Amino acid sequence: MNVECLALPLANPLAQEYQQQNASALQFFAHNPYREQSYRERVEWLQSQSYPHRNQLVEGLYRFNKEMGTHPEALKNIELLKQPDTYVVIGGQQAGVLGGPLYTVNKAVHLIQAAKRLSAELQANVIPVFWIAGEDHDIDEIDHVYWGADDGKRLHKERLPLNKKGRQSASTLPLDPELCTQFLEKFFQGQTETAETKKIRELLMQTAADSRTVAEWFARLMAKLFGKHGLVLVESSLPFVRELQQSIFSQIIENNEQLTKVMLRAADRISTAGYPLQLQVEEHQANLFVYEGNDRLLLERHGERFINRRRSYSRDELLKQVADSPERFSTNVVTRGLMQEHLFPTLAFIGGPGEIAYWAFYREVFELFGMQMPIVLPRMSITLVEGAQQRLLDSLGLSIEQVLTDFTAWKTEWSKNQVPHPLEQQFASARELIMSIYRPLVEEVVSLDGGLRGLAEKNSKLLLEQVSFLEERLIRSLQQKDDVEHVRVQRIETALLPEGALQERKHSFFPFANKYGLGLVDRLVDAPFAHDGTHQLYYL
């Protein structure tokens, strides 16, 4: 088997204890994600709900996914959504350049595997849905890609220049064809030419040429990679999505004060339980964005007025705007889950540690709007291990577990042992000993023939130079050895723990695809990963 599991600690204590199924963390959620009965209970609740917009949802999803060039398998899954016994597992990510970090791929793989497993266990149609957070306007988080450079010794970051104006979101940010081509050329200059390079180049060039925006390029790549595995894509800014969200936007505005109170109570309970707060909750938050032109601006509530940095609205004015122009409104981290729950018959939401810590606030938020929090399933975390890295680890007597859990301590101890010149004192002693023996001999020679002083001194200098020559050769040999060792450590760190983070948080998929082909996606989808919260090692 080319998969191993490691129990890695999470930085967020609430997510850590939730993953460990501790009651102190589970209390903030509606279900235990690792109990089979949770899924049956959730299905029963979903069966009691109605989704009158199923056909409209299917039409919009079908149109969008087909436009993105997806596979018939994904379109088939979309058609299944018309049926009342079809449910979804859903997760999402920002629209990162070249797909963003590896955890985007890992999340898609988890969605596909979870949908397949739950379909079999529940004898129902469960389809995987990937929510593209195209409205995110923090462009600095999505405009770059990383890869190993200098023969794997360092991490290189390459940015795609984007003509961002104001607080523009990825779904409206245009791709400049010339800048995009230049970016891709730099990317391929940083990769080793392989038998797969031509195919990867064609895919990236063609999807970029076909895309008008950053979010669309991301969607086309995800469709090409995962469409044949049935992954359904939805992008948050699509007009049909906004139209279907209209009633929830209105409810959020009407119940804005109650929403804030629920969030403040949740923050108090989480803090009382001893967990750090992932969200800063304040009285004036309206938990919505509104578009003013192309700028996505946060709304705040002050008294009866809702304001952003440009305008002020009464509640009635906002409600009229929602009725007339729902496309002007956008959710924040708090209200996105409500929209997701409203749109889809959601069996489970798959999220990373940060998302789990956010969702701990939301149980009563769902209840306020007559909904039930879906099952929150911790996202699978994966490290790809290449054969070259395994050989480097073996040469240093280092395990992957040590790298991922205790690398700083190992590296400190390793550095102590890299003594550049362990025989320095012995060489110094040898010089003193040689001169203590040779000096009396020189003096005797000079006493017998004063004309030989110059030759005798030159001879003694030559003797010392020979000792120094041997010492220098030793130093050079040790330095070369140390350089080799140092490079090995650098390569391991760059590949497995880049900048102190897990591989999946920095590296992207396409440098791996350039080595192992696009079929790597199929291998990952078919891999026997455990969905138990452990970290997965996948040996390539």
TrEMBL record:
Q: What class of enzyme is it?
A: ligase
The keyword NAD is annotated on this UniProt entry = no
- Domain of life, per the record? Bacteria
EC annotation from Swiss-Prot or TrEMBL: 6.-.-.-
The alphabetized UniProt keywords are: Ligase
Alphabetized Pfam families for the sequence:
CC_BshC, Rossmann-like_BshC
Q: What does this protein do?
A: Involved in bacillithiol (BSH) biosynthesis. May catalyze the last step of the pathway, the addition of cysteine to glucosamine malate (GlcN-Mal) to generate BSH.
Q: What is this protein called?
A: Putative cysteine ligase BshC
Provide the species name: Brevibacillus porteri
Encoding gene (name): bshC
